[in-house]
Design brief:
The chain is an alpha+beta fold. The chain has a single domain, classed as Superoxide dismutase, copper/zinc binding domain (Immunoglobulin-like). It is built from 1 helix and 10 strands, in the order H-E-E-E-E-E-E-E-E-E-E. Strands 1, 2, 3, 5, 7, 8, 9 and 10 form an 8-stranded antiparallel β-sheet that branches. The protein has a two-stranded antiparallel sheet with strand order 4-6. A hairpin with a 5-residue loop joins strand 2 and strand 3.
């Protein structure tokens, strides 16, 4: 069986990403608030853009139509500070966003942090998508707003989050980061 060329696979991925971005844009038009986060790897190269919006029911949606990362399962979290700079694997982003003082993990009976999210998988090609929803954060004013005094960031980790272990689910190094910025 003849395998498709790498360029054909990348072209198909680009078309799928474009179509996904269109549907994200349509859904964002019906939102009460919207934001984005340009995701950078540790070398400072942009590797994808997160579209983030809150619907009328308060549910926050995150969609990254195309992102380039190492293949495998990765943890993704909102972090306390809207900074993704300096050396030290995005240490300026602070810890997980946790305004309610919970423990880490979607499966932790004393959790989760507001910034905890489900894992996602990048296929062997190294190009994938990310999509999840959260009712633990907000893009509008209030206790759970990602737009507090020092902002927030979206951080991707090298490994899967075990969803129970404090403080970060043994999810490994921070390999990508983007500052969450409000859209007009």
């Amino acid at each position: 069986m003849k395998m498709p060329s790498r360029s054909l696979v990348l072209n198909i991925a680009a078309i799928v990403a474009f179509c996904g971005a269109c549907s994200s844009a349509q859904r964002m038009q019906n939102s009460v608030a919207a934001a984005n986060a340009i995701m950078y790897n540790a070398s400072g190269t942009p590797i994808g853009t997160a579209q983030i919006w809150q619907d009328k029911n308060g549910l926050v949606h995150v969609d990254i139509a195309t992102i380039s990362l190492p293949a495998g399962t990765h943890g993704i979290h909102f972090h306390d500070v809207g900074k993704c700079e300096g050396s030290g694997a995005f240490a300026t982003a602070g810890g997980h966003y946790n305004p309610m003082g919970m423990e880490h993990g979607l499966q932790n009976p004393k959790g989760p942090h507001a910034g905890d999210n489900p894992n996602f998988v990048i296929p062997a090609s190294g190009v994938g998508t990310v999509a999840f929803n959260s009712d633990r954060v907000s893009l509008t004013p209030g206790t759970r707003s990602l737009f507090d005094a020092d902002g927030s960031s979206l951080v991707i980790h090298a490994s899967a989050d075990d969803q129970v272990t404090n403080p970060a689910g043994n999810s490994g190094a921070r390999i990508a980061c983007g500052v969450v910025r409000a859209l007009p």
